[in-house]
Amino acid sequence: MENQNVALKDKIWTRDFVFVCLSNFFIFAGFQMTLPTLPLFVNELGGKDEMIGMIVGIFTFSALIIRPWAGHVLETLGRRFVYLIGLAVFIVSVGAYSFTSSIILLFLLRVIQGLGWGMSTTAVGTIATDLIPPKRRGEGMGFFGLAGTLAMAFGPALGLMLVAKANFSVTFAIAAFCGLSSLVIASLIHYSPGEKSPAPQRKWDLYEKTALVPALLLFFITMAFGGITSFLPLYTEQLNIGGIGWYFTVFAISLMVVRPFTGKLYDKAGHKAVFLPGAFLILIAMIDLAYLANEWMLLAAALLFGVGFGSVQPALQAWAVEQAPKHRRGMANATFFSSFDLGVGTGAMFFGVIASWAGYSEIYIASAVSVTISMLLYVFITKMVPARGRTRQGQLTR
């Protein structure tokens, strides 16, 4: 009987976990449909490379601004409030793209979409953390991440197909409908009330300090992600290389395959067994893209980047959350995703300038440098700070 209770306590696939994964799948599907299509939309409206970088980047910076507030509200007004409001804002903003013919209006809508995205993704990551047994957090976060990864398998390709076969308005309307599906499913979840802080909150509480190391490492990794999401469709179009839809599909399938295995590896051996091998694969993918010559090289980069990012991202997220006190999980997730946003936004804006001055291929050379910085920082931090084991809160290594 006792063993049965332990098994139930350590169960990952509960009713609510299934619902949160489904909800995450649909919101990511809507989001992924806009990733490769928005740069093309801006280009059609007459925007140049710098403007493409600005419109992609401002989304992530508005998400960055809202995340600390969302992290606090998760612990005060609850998970349901933040998640449902964030989803609603996302739906309205993306749906409004269908009626947009001005770059200025698109810019403003991207700011609003970023607010909704920042609220919803901070909330859903925390909700998943609440539902996953602590002993299986790496594995559980890997499965949770599969929902968003599955959306990557068809979202970008579907968006590009709809733009080619129909138009941008239809594409954005369907993306908004995916967000609506996410909202309906989210309303069925039983939410944890969260843990109240045992001490008064600091006046300027903008981050969770125990999550700073994995967040810093993630920043330099996701700068490369910003270069891919913003400019890869235009880069392949310039080179007259087909298969950009397949790129995102291969990338997503690679993520799906690798996440469960690296999640279990993280639970057994910690981030030392996952981070450097995964980051090295991302580095090779960026070098591949810098010297892109044909569709096979494009798909090879998708495979390498998918396996690498699928290893690194869930491991860093599990690392960030497990170090935080229970009443700070929301803020730990906010810190982690803020770093994600900051990396993508900084990358998009910085690489927009590089594309304008030097060309698209140089974007991926700069991305390789950014990934290398993350790897060197990891080695420096883990060598300089001694391991503290798994019994102390705020540990650096596992």
**What is the mean pLDDT?**
83
Radius of gyration: 20 Å
Number of domains: 1
Which shape, going by the Cα principal axes? globular
- According to CATH, the fold-level topology is Growth Hormone, Chain: A
Strand-pairing-aware structural class = mainly alpha
Unreliable segments of 5+ consecutive residues: 1-8, 387-398
The number of helical elements comes to 14
CATH superfamily: MFS general substrate transporter like domains
Into which percent range does the helicity of residues fall?
over 70%
N-to-C series of helices and strands: HHHHHHHHHHHHHH
Please indicate the percent range of residues in DSSP E strands (runs of 2 or more).
Answer: under 5%
- CATH architect. name: Up-down Bundle
Oligomer: single chain
Number of beta strands: 0
Task: Provide the descriptors you would attach to this structure in a database record.
about 400 residues; mainly alpha; Growth Hormone, Chain: A; 14 helices; globular; disordered N terminus; disordered C terminus
